[in-house]
Amino acid sequence: MNQILPDVNSLIEKLSTKHPDEVIGELTRIGAPAVDSLIPVLNGERKVRSDEVRRLAPWGLEGLEAQAANDKWVRVYAAKALGRIGDARAVKALGDSLYDSDWLLRDEAARALGACGPEGVATLLRTLRDKTCKGRDSSAKALGEARETSAVDALNRALTEPELCVSAAEALGKIGDPRAVPAFIRALRHNRRRRRGPKWKWNWDVCAFEVRVAEAFGVIKDITAFEPLISIIEGGSKEAQVAAANALGKLGDPRAVPVLLSLLPSGVRNPLVSPGKTRLFPRLITAIRHRKDTHSVARSNSSAEAEWGGDPELARAALASLAEIGDISVIEPLVRVIVRTGALRYEIAETLVKFGNAAVAPLVRQIDHISGGVRAALIQLGGSAVESLIGALGDNSRRSNAACLLGEIGDRRAVEPLIRSLAPACGSEVISALGKLGDARAVEPLVRLLDAGCRLDVISALEKLGDARGAILPMVMEMKSAERECAEFESAEAVEWAEKIEPVLRRILASKSGAVAPDDLRLLGTLQDTYDYRYMNGYKKIDFSEVKQLAREQLNLHQRQDLGT
After folding, report:
1. What are 420-437's pLDDT values in tens digits?
2. Which residue, 73, 183, 269, 377, is the most exposed by fewest CB within 10 angstroms?
3. What distance in Å separates the CA atoms of residue 445 and residue 286, rounded to the nearest whole number?
4. In 341-454, which residue ranges form alpha helices assigned H by DSSP?
């Protein structure tokens, strides 16, 4: 023991260094022998200061601030170390720290008490009831982190106190005891009555309280929480509505389906509508209370759905809950939403994929006006959608999109049906899909389509299939194209010679006056491929015999070329 104490004291002196977590870890490994040395540090009786703080001490206000900050953090680290050790001897000192003015110390001391066994829990319950204690909020949170079921009644009572209700609700959610549900419902009603007042304004405490209650309902999973969750969605803050929508999925009650569907985008390009401003929810709540069919209520209120713009975050929470409930009756409405609007289409697609085979047929029925969401869902469903997509190949309005999706999925069961769909007017999607599937059975049927007006698509598919003809055919086509262009060029040259050049040359040779027009001289100079300025400028005083000689040579040259060809 005597050897351990010097080690403890040297470690405690290091609590004010830049790496306190390592020191706390060493003190935790030492355990019970370190408790008696840590308690004076926690109480502030023993000052632990680094060399840097000691150097600043004489320097007025700066030194005082440095000392205060150092002492505060050293006490917090001491509480943290005592909590990890969990020795009951530290309970009294930790309980006294709950009355300290520093909230960081109070929080750390409360967590440490939660780890000190029954005596620590008893101290937390005592300080929770003591209205003079500054650390009641910290005590409530610590009881929740300790998952202490014996604290449920005390926390239930704390729900009625404005300064404690948020922490108490959070703690009860972590404990997850169903005994908290009636207290939650009473507290929500109390808040609702407060909101009816003319001077009511949203404040953080009420919003946070409703969020914590909704989260707690999701953890407890008590069916009696269904109606309170609906009321939160109807009139709560945005964060509370999101939490309530998530909680409805965890309850797994099918009655939540129409409510959750009403939170989705309707496809109408209107500004977002707050849930409290629609007349849909009062009717749903009335139906729930009287045990009516809530599905028919939601379906009949089409005007409310049309108004409902849907908040994106709230809609995502609703989608997650719909997938968690797993009621296949939502598939058709989700498909209608994904077709009518582009909002959240990929999130809706992911939700539909979670329903598996049940979502295939409704999705395939919509591929004639395919959207990004329908496409994404069918591709993710993969092999499950192949048979239905193959059946869609027989429908002219859906063939192209079905072929495109089959190519993306890559299942070779589609090869033969796609080959049977090949025709001169089949569209590039069928040909491209066969290329993507990479099956050699498609080579010969594709080659037979080369003369059907879709040659480029066929060549591209053959290249993907690795067939040599896919590489050779483009070269053959290029050569034929070059030959055709060459023949067209030669034909144009012959026309130009016969219509323009030959008459000029013969006119020059037939001239006996020795006068040649400037345009004729320029043409002759062009034929000679000469840059002689006399010809290019149509100079009139060129020797006439020279001009006739050039004209004769051009005629003879053209005649020899004709004989050669």
Report:
1. 888 777 778 888 888 888
2. 269
3. 64
4. 345-353, 360-364, 372-381, 386-392, 399-409, 415-420, 428-437, 443-447
Domain range enclosing 563: 497-565
Q: Check residue 354 and give its pLDDT.
A: 92
Q: Write out the two tokens for 46.
A: 């023993």
Q: Do the domain assignments include residue 562?
A: yes
**How far from 236 is each of 61, 77, 192, 240, CA to CA, in Å?**
48, 40, 9, 6
Q: How many domains does the chain have?
A: 1
Q: Which amino acid is at 54?
A: R
Residue 126 in any domain: the answer is no
Residue 392 included in any domain = no
Q: Which residue type is seen at 282?
A: P
What pLDDT score was predicted for residue 464? 80
Closest CA to 409 of 424, 431, 442, 387: 387
Report the chain's mean pLDDT, rounded to a whole number. Answer: 78
Average pLDDT score over residue span 375-391? 90
**Alpha-helical segments (H) within 274-393:** 280-289, 294-300, 302-307, 312-325, 331-340, 345-353, 360-364, 372-381, 386-392
Helices 226-235 and 238-251 pack at an angle, to 10 degrees, of: 150
pLDDT in tens, 255-288: 999 999 888 876 433 333 344 444 445 545 555 4
Q: Do residues 87 and 32 touch, judged by C-beta distance below 8 A? A: yes
CA gap 400, 203 in Å, rounded: 56
Q: For tokens 């009335």, name the residue.
A: 286
pLDDT tens for 104-113 read: 999 999 999 9
C-alpha to C-alpha distance for 46 and 136, rounded to whole angstroms? 26
